Task: structure prediction
Amino acid sequence: MERADQASGRKKILRNAAIGASATALLIPVASEIRVRRAARALSDRWRHVPVEPRGPALLGISFRPLQAEALGLDPYATLLTLLEHPFQLIRLGAYWNRMEPAPGTFDHDELDSLVGAAERAGKQIIMSVGPVKNFGYPEFFVPAHHLGEPLREGALVEPADHGALLRAATQFAARVVRRYRDRQSIIAWQVEHEAVDPLGVEHSWRLSAAFVRAEVEAVRAADPARPVMMNGFLPTSSPVRLQQWWRTRDQGDSLSVARDLADIVGIDFYPRHALLAAGGRTVYLDGSRSPWQQARRRRLFEWAAASGRRLMISEGQAEPWEAVTTPPSPGGQGMFSCLPEHVIENYSQCMSWQREAPCGAWAYLFWGAEYWVLRQKQGDPRYLEAFARVLHDS
Result:
């Protein structure tokens, strides 16, 4: 009996040691990805000196969010004109369903027509994101109230069988937008949904099913068989986000996985550093963008693209702060730790450096945060816009 107790005790010790070792193995990468900093800090001219990676054949451009411009107190059309003065090639515009169909049977294309026209006059190529349910730019949900009898149920998949009316209305809207703009030579691709099957942070936990999104893709392709379909997904850059994303999308895969199945062009949304929470004058940030596991998934994506003949792009490259608030702060004479002007260049260069080891490079790179740059310029700080201009000139 004494020997049995001793053996049992040794097993418990070994088991506890194994559990401790596993926990330590998990905590070490998490700890290495955490930064605790004061969010606002003095600006510098470091952006003038950081290396700019050659872009090769990749197209460079921006996403434009009229709602974000409004949230920053800017005039959207004037903001766009300011940005279009720069010599980039590609711009992503969004067809926001609730802005274009404010009431049943009422369709207003004027705002989008004006944005498309301005981009065309500036000689830009366009990726048009037709949503319909999710589209880029907070709050990433743009279904008109008259097409949604009750809120989508939290924690549930939005399936065609349970939301037939919504799917019919969504596919009709997407097809309507495509038919309206398909004769414009400037439009080179359609985006269907935004991070299509992922939930939106803490705002909602419902998710579109892959079957729902597939029906939307089919409607877009039927309306325009000639142009490619682009779909995007978030590439986690920290272990906690990676684990949360896997857990919440484990039943059908995340948006990058679904994009690989359905799209002609797969877009990667890349945010190396973002705030987790703020308290007591300090902010906790996550940054694991150079960790081995993150690099491994990125390599697999590029290898898949080369083997399948598909195109990859950076659909969102972080170029504005991601702090613990919805609208990025812009303190006078200071910048935010999550994205300083030099990070506009460093994040771009990190993505372009992947091409040196990948069998195929990124087809395009879209900077995310252009409206913020214009706000900063109006406040007397042109560094963000000048960092962007430096990439265009030196790459």
